[in-house]
Amino acid sequence: QVHLVESGGGVVQPGRSLRLSCAASGFTFTDYALHWVRQAPGKGLEWLAFISYDAVRQQYADSVKGRFIISRDSSRNTLYLQMSSLRVEDTAVYYCTREDPLGGSYAFGYWGQGTLVIVSS
Amino acid sequence: QSVLTQPPSVSGAPGQRVTISCTGSSSNIGAPHAVHWYQQLPGTAPKLLIHGNTNRPSGVPDRFSGSKSGTSASLAITGLQAEDDADYYCQSYDSSLSGWVFGGGTKLTVL
């Protein structure tokens, strides 16, 4: 059974850094690309970052490019999001999600439960 | 402002049929990149509902169906049930942005 469990959220001051983790289980970690998606309170979903199955490729949304870094550790089956220069508008629930190849396209097939990040002074 | 445009809300009585539209452009839906739909129940993580424009993952009732034409896609829900009361999001890939994009979400209210 696929499980994605995020952790590392909390309250942080503007300008500071925070690292989120996503522990994966129930599947071969190195077979799948992974993403981070966030949802601000009362708002919609926003894609943030992608990392390929082999960690060779990363892509970022413009809103976080240069501030956030996505990485993965296959020895720990864990996905990370290093967030720096945090802003109030980064306040959101952060989800990790697995990209699944489904019938010729790729969709976010599995999601974690999310971890809440609050950026506030 | 989301790259993919959805109506903020739709509603319907139990048993009725509703549709949710998702309008994009030539760099995403019209490229053509596949459209996927997600259901988010209150207080929970999103769940994949439709993938590859029209396909239902196992376990998703056939009351849910997806379609796509040109730069738009639609999600149809027939035989509305109380448990369908949720937020629905369309999602695709945008070649111009080189990134994945979501619609702004549609709140479905079952009356």
What does the secondary structure layout of this molecule look like, with pairings?
The complex is a heterodimer of chains A (121) and B (111).
Chain A (H helix, E strand, L loop, with lengths): L2 E5 L2 E3 L5 E8 L8 E6 L5 E7 L6 E3 L7 E6 L4 E6 L8 E11 L2 E7 L3 E5 L2
Parallel strand pairs in A: 2-11
Antiparallel strand pairs in A: 1-3, 3-8, 4-5, 4-9, 5-6, 7-8, 9-10, 9-11
Chain B lengths: L8 E4 L5 E6 L12 E5 L6 E4 L13 E6 L2 E6 L8 E9 L4 E4 L3 E5 L1
Parallel strand pairs in B: 1-9
Antiparallel strand pairs in B: 2-6, 3-4, 3-7, 5-6, 7-8, 7-9
Characteristics of this structure?
heterodimer, A: 121 residues, mainly beta, seven-stranded mixed beta sheet, four-stranded antiparallel beta sheet, 11 strands, B: 111 residues, six-stranded mixed beta sheet, three-stranded antiparallel beta sheet, 9 strands, 0% helix, globular
Describe the structure.
The complex is a heterodimer of chains A (121) and B (111). Chain A is an all-beta fold. Chain A is 0% helix and 55% strand. Chain A is built from no helices and 11 strands. In chain A, strands 2, 4, 5, 6, 9, 10 and 11 form a 7-stranded mixed beta sheet that branches. Chain A has a 4-stranded antiparallel beta sheet with strand order 1-3-8-7, with no helix packed on it. Chain B has 111 residues and is mostly beta strands. Chain B has strands at residues 9-12, 18-23, 36-40, 47-50, 64-69, 72-77, 86-94, 99-102, 106-110. In chain B, β3 (36-40) and β4 (47-50) form a beta hairpin. Chain B is globular and about 40 Å long. At the A-B interface, β5, β9 and β10 of A face β3, β7 and β8 of B.
Radius of gyration of chain A: 14 Å
Question: Which percent bin holds the helix content of chain A?
Answer: under 10%
Beta fraction of the residues of chain A? over 45%
The structure class of chain A reads mainly beta
| Class inferred from helices and paired strands of chain B | mainly beta
Q: How many β strands of chain A by DSSP? A: 11
Shape of chain B: globular
Query: Could you state the order of secondary-structure elements of chain A as H and E?
Result: EEEEEEEEEEE
